[in-house]
Amino acid sequence: MEKEIFALVGFWEIMLSIFMQWQAYTISNIKTFSVQSWILGIFLLWAGVFHGFIALIILALLTIITRAIAMPLYLGNTIRKQIYRARENKHRISTGLSILISLLLAVFGYLVYYLILAGHGQSLVSIPITLMLQGAFLIVSRSNAYSQLIGYLVMENSMFLLSFLFSELPFIIEAGIILDVLGVVVVAGLLMRVRDEDIEKEEELLG
Amino acid sequence: MLNLFFLSILQLLYVFALAPLAVGILHVFDERLSSRRGPSIFQEYYNLFKFFRKQSIYPKTASGFFSYVPYITFGMYLFLTLVLPIITAFPLLFGPVVDFVGGGLVFGAASTFLKLASLDSRNSYSILGTSRASSIGIFTEPIILLIFIMFGVISGTNNPYVINNILQTSTSWFFSLVHLFVGVAFFLVLIIETGQLPIESHTPNEFGSIDSLMSLEYSGRELALLKWGSYIKSFLLMNVFLNVFTLPFFVPMKFNILAIVLYMFINFLKIILLLAIFAIINNIVSKYRLFKIFDYILIAFSFALMAMVVFYVVNGG
């Protein structure tokens, strides 16, 4: 039962990240990310209630509050103040090609599992791997700093899914990751707001 | 044997009589949702009667082939009506003639004849429509094939009746992710095949039309047959989507005349539900640019391919 629901959640996350590749408007990417986080949070909440894990319930609530509500709201507000960032002017890779590449990454994710991890018998591991590759691809394929940030957050979500499969990760680490990401988003948002000129440059998020 | 024959005739009458009504209901839904009164739901019947009474005119440049095509395609849809599961979940008299791939082949042959005829008419707009329809068809046909392959994986056969029976009886397959993804992919393809809004708008200008351009030179009885044929095609595809893929419930699996007659009403209710969904979609999305349609097709393809990945991931592969 839990395995099936995990597969359901995982594959809808993958489909939503493919949908992100389709979108030109940054605001709809942010909304899609919010939906992704809602699905993840509700799944964690269900698992916590099902198993009676208090830590998991708290984690789920933290996920919903920070990722599904706070971050999208904050990013959306920042975008509304800088309306010229709301749309990707030109894609570095055409939409059709990027969807195809995302699909190939999904197959590749399964191959990675099949070739390297097959001995462990957890075929569901390929879902988080695929989702992580999708997030990485979103970062590489877009030149808009907001989309890149969303890509990073998608990778984060995938890590969350992965850690759920190999449970018993200490709660403090998981909660730490959430707060960490919240910090990253705030800092990135501030940086983007301060650096008003020359917005389409890629070096925005380079070290 | 005789029973099956009569059921075949009943199915034929059911489809041919109600296909224009379904289109009429869709138009009424569309208009009501945009706060207009809309035509009568029987408007399509009046149109067909009108066309049947009018004189046929052929372009001077067209060959004899042009005038035969409406009869050929109408005959093909007649054949398809006899072999698909519409009011029963057991094969009727002609059921064993073709499987899914064969049915797809006949659908493809009918549209190929139509394309050839519209090329034969030498009308520039018809040729424009043919070019658009072919370039979209090239990409949708493989998706349909992939969907059939995935249903083959579920059922072990290519027979629509077996797929219906399996999905009707096995909840684990019905609620499986493979079925979900294939269902969504088929729905996206259905929108393309029935010419609903994100893909095609039925306005008189040439920017949005695809299929409606192809029958531009037809008139009179031939036009009526083409229109009726296209209504039947949409009706059949919607039936395949509902009876085989998404809502395979209540379809009678054994011969029982009362159950079959009752199911005819249930089936039409299902169709009306699907039409309401189409009408809502028609009212909330605008038409895509022609080149954006291919991105849409890619999304449909990604659902179909995901179904395959899901099958391997969930079943351990």
What's the short version?
The complex is a heterodimer of chains A (207) and B (317). With 207 residues, chain A is mainly alpha-helical.
What would your notes on this structure say?
The complex is a heterodimer of chains A (207) and B (317). Chain A contains seven helices and no strands. Chain A has 207 residues and is mostly helical. In chain A, helix 4 packs antiparallel against helix 5. The radius of gyration of chain A is 17 Å and the shape is globular. In chain A, 36% of the residues are buried. The mean pLDDT of chain A is 79. Chain B has 317 residues and is mostly helical. The radius of gyration of chain B is 20 Å and the shape is globular.
Give the arrangement of secondary structure elements.
The complex is a heterodimer of chains A (about 210) and B (about 325).
Chain A: H1 2-22, H2 26-51, H3 54-81, H4 95-117, H5 126-141, H6 145-165, H7 171-194
Helix pairs in contact in A: 1-2, 1-4, 1-5, 2-3, 2-6, 3-7, 4-5, 5-6, 6-7
Chain B: H1 2-33, H2 43-53, H3 64-83, H4 100-120, H5 124-155, H6 160-169, H7 171-174, H8 177-193, H9 211-214, H10 220-246, H11 257-284, H12 293-314
